[in-house]
Amino acid sequence: MAPKPWGEWSMALSHLALGVVSLHAAVSTAQASRGAAAGFLLQALAAATMLAPGLDTDEDGLAGAWVATVIGLPLLAFDFHWVNGDHSSANLLLGGGMVLAVAGDHLGVEGRSVAGQAVVLVVAVTIVIVAVFTTNTYGMWGGLMLGAAGLLGRLEEDRLLLLPKEDVCRWVLAAGSWAYHRALHTQRLQWE
């Protein structure tokens, strides 16, 4: 398939959008939730490594995306579960992410891909479940968007998409991160 002419701009803009949304979310949630802020910051840093000159090698990008996925996303979900009293799920998500982060060197490329997408989907489903029970609409949308990003990653053919699959995933992840940031804000207002 011929490369799409806007592919390079699309990649840069999707990384920039994810980085800006994640950095804004990290700064605005830092006082109320350090765990979620750290997760958002990991996403922002992973996106920034792809934009910085000299750091855009495939190995650096994959390492940043791996850390943002297996540690950053469970950190985001950890706070959401913890505040709602689901301490077991919070600890299980974070512990599982830490184990995967350590075991990442022992997994092949395909193993890391499957494990990363599994983490995205597990985090998304658990966020949706908690959001449904707490009637947090932003949480539902954030979880659905994170799940959509995970499912798009498994898409074999991207001929149906106008942009490259990875860029669409980042745009959806940025939208999901924004909604999840709003969900944390709504949750904090409910508990005050």
General form: globular
In round numbers, the mean pLDDT is 82
Estimated helix fraction = over 70%
Count of individual beta strands: 0
Following the backbone from N to C, one meets helices and strands in this order, namely HHHHHHH
Largest sheet: none
Percentage of residues in DSSP E strands: under 5%
For the termini, the CA-CA separation is: 54 Å
Structural class: mainly alpha
* Radius of gyration over C-alpha positions, nearest whole angstrom: 16 Å
Low-pLDDT windows of residues = none
Number of helices: 7
Write up what this structure looks like:
- Helices cover 80% and strands 0% of the residues.
- The protein is built from seven helices and no strands.
- The chain has helices at residues 7-29, 34-51, 58-83, 87-103, 109-134, 137-153, 165-191.
- Helix 4 (87-103) runs antiparallel to helix 5 (109-134).
- It is globular and about 45 Å long.
- It starts with 6 loop residues before the first helix and ends with a helix.
Could you give the topology of this structure?
Elements: H1 7-29, H2 34-51, H3 58-83, H4 87-103, H5 109-134, H6 137-153, H7 165-191
Helix pairs in contact: 1-2, 1-7, 2-3, 3-4, 3-5, 4-5, 5-6, 6-7
Short description:
The protein is mainly alpha-helical and 192 residues long. It has helices at residues 7-29, 34-51, 58-83, 87-103, 109-134, 137-153, 165-191. α1 (7-29) runs parallel beside α7 and α6 (137-153) runs antiparallel to α7 (165-191).
List its traits.
192 residues, mainly alpha, 80% helix
